[in-house]
Amino acid sequence: MAQFNKDVVILGGGMVGLSIANQIKEKRPELSIIIIDKENELGLHSSGRNSGVLHAGVYYEPKSLKAKVCIEGAKRLKNWCEEEKIPVLNCGKVITPQTISLDSQLDLLYKRGTANGAQISLINEYEFKKLVPDGNTSSGRALWVNDTCVVKPKKIIELLSKRLIEKGVEILLDIEVLKYRPKEKTFFISKKSKNNKKFIDQISYGYFFNTTGLQADKVAREFNIGKDLTILPFKGIYWQLDPKAPFQFKTNLYPVPDLDMPFLGVHVTPDPDGIITLGPTAIPALGRENYKGLGGFELLKTLDFLGDITYQWIRNTGGFRKYSYEQALHGIKPLFVRAAKLLVPKLESNHLIRSNKVGIRAQLYDKREGILIKDFRMENGISSTHVLNAISPAFTASFSLADLILENSNLKL
Ligand SMILES: Cc1cc2nc3c(=O)[nH]c(=O)nc-3n(C[C@H](O)[C@H](O)[C@H](O)COP(=O)(O)OP(=O)(O)OC[C@H]3O[C@@H](n4cnc5c(N)ncnc54)[C@H](O)[C@@H]3O)c2cc1C
Fold first, then answer.
1. Within 13 A of 116's CA, how many CA atoms are on the CB side?
2. Is 246 helix (H, G, I), strand (E, B) or coil?
3. With 90 as the cut, is the pLDDT of residue 387 above it?
4. How does DSSP classify residue 212?
């Protein structure tokens, strides 16, 4: 049995785990850090499967943690990409009211965004059409967000992990944790691919970070943290705009979101490689890591499931249940197209190619209160910090979010 003794152990090598390691190394390069992930490569979950949009801080309630770290985090990540010569598409974003009743939400978003320090302006139909000739504004108004840009998330994960290794961070992949002993600041691991579980190693640490995304609530419970919290997985499937479609997009086109829900709605996003995607849906997923496409059978089961088992305890969120039903139906292409037509009226089914990109959001739910947690959430346990709700814009904000997590942890740097 091998034994590792590290100052800091980070379980989960997504963008949040990598950023925490990065920020610790900035402040205390001499600390020994190991990142442990269960997969045989990094970026197989949210951090490698998201829209790649670096958000500009518009949507979030001004006193929220999201508002606190989004703008600064986006600037830092963008600068890092530019220094590292990773492509960044500086294309901005237009937020449009897809129905007339949503027009007044533009004023609310403008107020929130301005309070957060985002560079935004309300635009008229003429300005809108110059930016998105094939888009639709139901009211003749829209919001222009200047600083939004788009990156390739996997490239960032690959290079950031390489840079961390160069700074002395160890990364162990393909690992299963067999037993946690939080009081003794230790746990036991095995290589997943080895059937013989005798190949067990012991990891001891000074401080432990749980950044396991979709599994974070389960890991936290091993430390007696978050017993009323559970993660609900929401699947985001994407479509790609056929390059032969009679229109193209040079900027992001987003709908006005339902601000009571933690998702931003299906949007049009161009990326640095010239690919234009539409999505993601927010379909309640059957399984936290069930990335397979949503076929008819899964859809039926999802709807059944929604009305029945898991969501029966979503007591105070009737609106959420209705929203989930609508979202589940977006798994069917003609219904997805019908919803997307509110943004792009000329869109037809034959303009869309199914993208192999599918992501699953790790949305935290408070069972006792019956609410979806909208803001980031982290909790400290014995010599440990558990990042329980690292939803969007956690990718955008990652460097600044990592600083915030460290400031609120019990790790003295
Ligand atoms: C469809 C979709 C679109 C999104 N779009 C955007 C966007 O445009 N902009 C934005 O800012 N954010 C976006 N997000 C959100 C963003 O992707 C996440 O907030 C962010 O990636 C979370 O990073 P993470 O490190 O917490 O989680 P993850 O990336 O999920 O990383 C967790 C890691 O932990 C590992 N792990 C899990 N359990 C264990 C275990 N028991 N032992 C060891 N390792 C374990 C996993 O293998 C994984 O590598 C989107 C998310 C989705 C799903």
1. 29
2. coil
3. yes
4. -
DSSP 337-368: HHHHTTT-TT--GGGEEEEEEEEEEEEEEETT
Could you tell me if 301 and 323 are in contact, meaning their C-beta atoms sit under 8 angstroms apart? no
315: pLDDT strictly greater than 50? no
Radius of gyration of the CA atoms of the chain, in A: 21
Domain range annotation of the chain: 1-89+150-228+375-413
pLDDT reported for residue 312: 45
Q: Quick check: 147 and 74 in contact, CB under 8 A?
A: yes
- How many residues are listed for the chain in this entry? 413
**CATH code that applies to domain 1-89+150-228+375-413:** 3.50.50.60
**And the tokens for 319?**
């609106």
Contacts of 73 by beta carbon, 8 Å cutoff, 6+ apart: 393, 396, 397, 398, 399, 400, 401
Distances (CA, A) of 158 to 15, 231, 313: 10, 26, 39
Atom from ligand 1 closest to the CA of residue 16: 25
Does residue 308 sit in helix, strand or coil?
Answer: coil
User: 154: closest CA among 401, 400, 395, 392?
Assistant: 395
Reference 185, options 4, 379, 397, 371; nearest CA is 4
Q: Ligand 1 — pocket residues by CB below 6 A? A: 11-17, 36-39, 42, 44-47, 49-53, 55, 177, 211-215, 219, 236, 280, 359-361, 390-396
CA atoms within 13 Å, Cβ hemisphere of 148: 27
pLDDT for res 299: 55
**Residues 270 and 252 sit within 8 Å (Cβ to Cβ):** yes
Separation between Cα atoms, residue 34 and residue 5, nearest integer Å? 9
